[in-house]
Amino acid sequence: MNTKIKWLRDKINGLNMQGMIVSNPINVRYLTGIDAEGILLITRKENFYITDSRYIEEVNKILTIDDGIVVYNISNLCREDYENFFLFCENVGFEEKYVTYYMYKEHKQKYQINNFEETENLLEKQRMLKDEDEIEKIKTACKITDECFEYLKGYIKTGKTEKQIAIEIEKFFVENGADGLAFDTIVASGKNSSKPHAKPSDRIIQSGDILTIDMGCKYKGYCSDMTRTIFVGYVPENMKNVYDLVLKNQIQVLEELKEGSNIRSISKNVEYSLKLNGYTLLHSLGHGVGLEVHEIPYINPKHDYNLRENMVIAIEPGVYIPDSFGVRIEDTVLITKNGCEILTKSDKNYVIVDKEV
Amino acid sequence: MNTKIKWLRDKINGLNMQGMIVSNPINVRYLTGIDAEGILLITRKENFYITDSRYIEEVNKILTIDDGIVVYNISNLCREDYENFFLFCENVGFEEKYVTYYMYKEHKQKYQINNFEETENLLEKQRMLKDEDEIEKIKTACKITDECFEYLKGYIKTGKTEKQIAIEIEKFFVENGADGLAFDTIVASGKNSSKPHAKPSDRIIQSGDILTIDMGCKYKGYCSDMTRTIFVGYVPENMKNVYDLVLKNQIQVLEELKEGSNIRSISKNVEYSLKLNGYTLLHSLGHGVGLEVHEIPYINPKHDYNLRENMVIAIEPGVYIPDSFGVRIEDTVLITKNGCEILTKSDKNYVIVDKEV
Fold first, then answer.
1. Is 90 exceeded by the pLDDT of residue A341?
2. Contact A275/B at CB under 8 A
3. Which residue range(s) make up the domain with B192?
4. Cβ <8 Å between B57 and A322
5. A135 closest CA partner among A263, A289, A315
6. Which residues of chain A neighbour B105 with C-beta distances below 8 Å?
7. B193 and chain A: CB distance < 8 Å anywhere?
């Protein structure tokens, strides 16, 4: 059995569960490397992965004997098979934040489970702490992202549309070793930048535009996340104060981060600083990054929680002035014993593309 | 109030519900046009949309007075507000196939709901029947997809990788009026085509390759879905029989489709025909297409259900020979009174790219 599954078995035993149904495909991938549609059953003695004909060939190629997982084709299973999986199991865990109410009822009935127990982000919590291999993958994803930003400095010109830039980013990622996008790229120019979650539009980039680019790729399943706000032609005077305020806050947070930093107090500091200047932080200050681009820990004042070594998080303060413009600056960082290692290293001073001469 | 929300209110009244929580963002978009993160509450007298600061600006731009929806910022709501929404409502509906078990418990508690009722795909069932406006959008998405296929015939050459072709497809979509991809494009060449859900890889296209391209775009939220299996250089003799068998079945199904066609019997016919030739249909024969690329009705023998006018579905028989190759051919079609209108019109005869001379 692989080490991650062994860890899970020990963990659920300690919680007095005799089995667990892992439905969230991200958690299945974390435990097994499988990237497919299916369900992982941790039973008293064995581990099973149930999938369908579309994935059988691929799954069997990925798994080794060492994984200790028996693969079943869903169409070969009958009612009795399901009932036998958790026979003599008193308590079986499930992912209550992933499983729908409908699936919950169906599972209970199909597997004849007496006590179906909530597992409270058991796997997500473990996933917060990255091992060496995971960190290397995230570093590679961040490196490709930095290279992409460097490329964009030359590529972005007046006349291009937001959509064209977004697709160029994806093309760069794919052609430079990434699996693909970690999330839908945001390219928001001019007024569009005032919406934190703007979708790339057909708006044409003009000189004097501010341009927020929020992008990230996946490398072997692991994500990067970086935002830069840049300028086209020149830096408009009225935007400098806001840019400087966001950047100062972002740098200050990164300087303070280390094992033990308290999420609530970091977030409150930034909120307070923005408030002093008349602005509100419209979204969380940050979030964990790993197999998902947004995962726990969420960095906002709602969470009174301390960071730990080997967490990877993104820090992304932003200011958004409705109908005018917005600025967001974001890096992915690795928390260490005494500080943090900034994994996305692109320039954060005023970056001006297609400069007016 | 807009007609779709009026329909929903009548419908739930008929089911003896006094309110409904609509959580699935696709259903929210269907009812309101809103494309954001938030929750729609249909209460006794009013409709509310609760979202967060990131989306407020956009949502207020989309909604008109005619929609009759009051927008709330989630951070301005207190415990009592939640309790008041469904005051004096005996039965409140929810989407049990979307809401997680965790959300279910949280909603019950937060809104103080006594009877939280399953709504059994109420909205998804209505979404199956497309109105004129929806059909026009799907037709446009299909037209862009056909144009893309035409472009690919010239673009695909030996030496390109699967990933390069996939990104070129997305680029074409975005530059030709689509919102973006309807789903992750499949470009599976050579042996990779034997996996129905292969992901584009770095494999380089060679002469003699078979190439399955499963692609679709979104236009104003509505999807297209089309698969073509094509040949590079020439058509290998050993692949012709399989190609012909899949094509014959696909065409036969399209000829038979009309209002009243039974999903089970259509699917069984194809399964039987493939079986006679020693093959198994590894996936459903098809599925509904609309705001989601895969929606009900699912076309497989598990469903004893008749098609209705104005449904839009994709029909995609396929044969997959492990470790060798696969063929899938798929069109998006509109069900009419007496037949079906094929909305994706790309060539289905042997298409040979980068032809050897």
1. yes
2. no
3. 132-353
4. yes
5. A289
6. 96
7. no
